[in-house]
Amino acid sequence: MANSFQDQLLKAGLVDSNKLKKANREKHKERAQQQHVAASASDAAKRQAQQAGAHKAERDRELNRQKLELENKKALAAQIKQLVEANRVPKGDGDIAYNFQYASKIQRIYVTAATRTQIVRGELVIVRVGSEYDLVPKHVAEKIAQRDPSCVLSMKDPAPSADDEGEYAKFKIPDDLIW
Hints:
By secondary structure, this protein is an alpha+beta fold. The chain has helices spanning 4-12, 17-87, 113-121, 138-147, and strands spanning 96-102, 105-111, 124-129, 132-137, 152-154. Strands 4-3-5 form a three-stranded antiparallel β-sheet. A two-stranded antiparallel ribbon has the order 1-2. α2 (17-87) packs antiparallel against α4 (138-147). The longest helix has 71 residues, at 17-87.
């Protein structure tokens, strides 16, 4: 019953068995070709899906990297803030203005004479956390500079001694000269 129409045509003598086999072969080739086209279309869809998945994974990795970088910056900022708060040296209620340069502008803090002397000698260092300027000991400023060098504003080497100055030793700087 599967090929009843073909059997009827064969019995009637309208077609011979070779033509029938040839028609069956062509029909089989056509089905195989359609399956091949369908398979290649599904392969193309799979490739597009894989490419989209790879693109999404790359984008996710980039977003995770940016998120991690932001968290690291926040952690460093918190460490710097904690170092400054724990080791802050009070400026005192000084009336002496100490001038320093930050971002191509001259800034000023008011300190006592003893604090100013320590800054000039390089024992105290000016650091900036947020919008505030604070004084910290040199060893703390070095730790801060390891984390973020832009926070440390003026780290000086200790003032040279009289014998290190060499030819400038004969020129005395007045004691009352304040920059």
